[in-house]
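sorry for the late reply, my laptop died twice this morning and i had to redo everyting from scratch. anyway the thing you sent over, i finally got around to it. pasting the sequence first so we're on the same page, its 694 residues, then the predicted structure underneath. double check i copied it right bc i was rushing
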Amino acid sequence: MNHNNSNNLIHQRDRRVLSLPAVHPCEGISPNTLISSLVTLSQNICNYQHSFFATQRRNAREAIRQVSIILFFLLEIQERSLPIPQSTVLSLSELHFTFQKIHFLLQDCVLQGARLLLLAKSNHVASLFQSLVRAVATSLDVLPLHEIEVSGEVRELVELLAKQARKAKMEHEPKDEHMSKSVHSILKQLEKGIEVDKNALKEIIEYLEIKTWNECNREINLLEEEVALECSNCNEREHERDAPLLSSLLGLMSYCRVVIFETLEISNNREKSETRMSTEMMTSVNPEDFRCPISLEMMTDPVTVTTGQTYDRASIKKWLKAGNTICPKTGENLSNTELVPNTTLKRLIQQFCNDNGISLSKSTNRNRDLANTILPGSAANAHAMQFVSWFLTRMLAFGTDKQKSKAAYEIRLLARSNLFNRACLIQLGTIPPLLDLLLCTDEKSTQENAISALMKLSKHATGPQHIMDSNGLKPILTVLKKGLSLEARQVAAATVFYLSSVREYRKVVGENPEVVPSLVELVNEGTTCGKRNAVVAIYGLVLVPRNQKRAIEAGVVHALVGVLGSSEKDELVTECLAVLAVLAENVEGANAILRASALSLITAMLQTASLRVGKEHCASILLSLCVNIGAEVVAVLAKDPSVMPLLYSLLTEGTSHAAKKARFLIKVLQDFSETRASGFKGSSVPQEPSLPVW
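ok and here's the structure:
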């Protein structure tokens, strides 16, 4: 393997760094097959001789040298087709097992992104090399060389190697030892709240040849992966001992990336990935958004209480059963204990699990891992993030334009998937200067970074309050209306969604006369992701009855109907139907839907919608139109022979909420067909109470 081949390993790993999951060859393996496999494995190991080793250079070279000598022995057997006695299989199998481990270890030693981790654990790495070389010696000792007809020269080489391997000392290299001690010394300083000695830190990264922002970021990405894997193996004592060190190293490298590397270098693919991540607010939403605030685990049956907060049904029922009468998250009194199914959120959770190959039955452990980001993992990491947050706040306030843009991008990354980072960045004052940056820059990338950073901070429980207390709605609205790029406008819509997810701000945001029209404009003009951001933001706002009228007057119905008629994206269509279902619950909204000539479209979508929740929204809209408009709608539906079978299908295959709607609508249509009453509205159609869609 060459040095370049290791670049992609960080994205393709299926094991922890320094875990060496070798497998013994099966007992019935033929000697020829075993030799062939050993040759291939040995050649792969020898290919590392030209790779770059940031640490363990001497030990790696010695291991490769020993394997290369054994390769001569194996090749002679293979090329001369020498008979291989069955008595050699056991020792050759043990050799194969050891070579697998050597291969894994060398793979980790050249893995880009693992340099700091291997330096910090250099004593352990050296001991691994020592034990593997001793294992090679043991395998050679029991190998019956006299039964294999290799040349005398090769036999002498193998015998000499066995003696050398028994005596070999794979020691901690002096330079590695010095730098490793320096790393641990810096971590101890951070534990005490002492800021990092930048010169000492620069010496370490120069020794590891971490030369660019990108290379530093690779180290952070790998450490983040290791921390996540650490959580998934939290029951293993060995892994538990690694947790504080991994968190500390993560904090140290985050400090390094922010403070040491002043030049931001992002590959095109990376930049596109980050842009896509921020824009696709709902399609790439972080898994922590699906956690129940009570259990901190993935919700399997999300329900919404009267305060507008969503919890997993089992958790909130347990809370209520204990005699609690307040909302766990907001502390507000619950006017009643009704639990409304949040079907849209449930669908998003299921979609996320399907897209990422996660079983809902296994998601509990994964979300417990995510919940661990509420805490920093170590004192060193906590203090490192405090120093980083304060540094970024200063850069946003007093830096050059270039430094401000980089600071905003760093916040965007740090707040992406870590709850402690978000809390720290918010507490140390990054929100006000980020809001100022939205309006004082004429650079598209800077504005995109600033609004994306704010969007991620708004996902924290305290984020919306800090934004609103800093009069942040106005600059965010300015970006939503007149952003320097469509990307910035779309992320602003996502930020509005998170602000309006807080019940007390939903009314304030909706009362601004420019918010809803700007969102409607984005529904008309945005990309698919931008439309979705705008639609879900509108949904959050129209949950307040007063905002429904503003939305209707802003033309939201025509915009949503336009999307329904043109989009092939199931998720976007479903979200549009969810908003229409809310609006249809009042007379003005129902009439607006009818004026938009949407009745036939929604009736057709009752059959064609690919997602079940979309069909449920269609049934809800049709029922509301019948209740709020009357015979004009009922007559059309009663004449359509396809409607009844679709409703009966929904009755048996839908949720209990959907079945209730379908059952009620079936009764309305049956009563109409039986009576053909002319005075339908207000008499023949019973008035069903409004029910939230989620």
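The CA atoms of residues 368 and 532 lie 29 Å apart.
thats about all i looked at so far, will dig more tmrw
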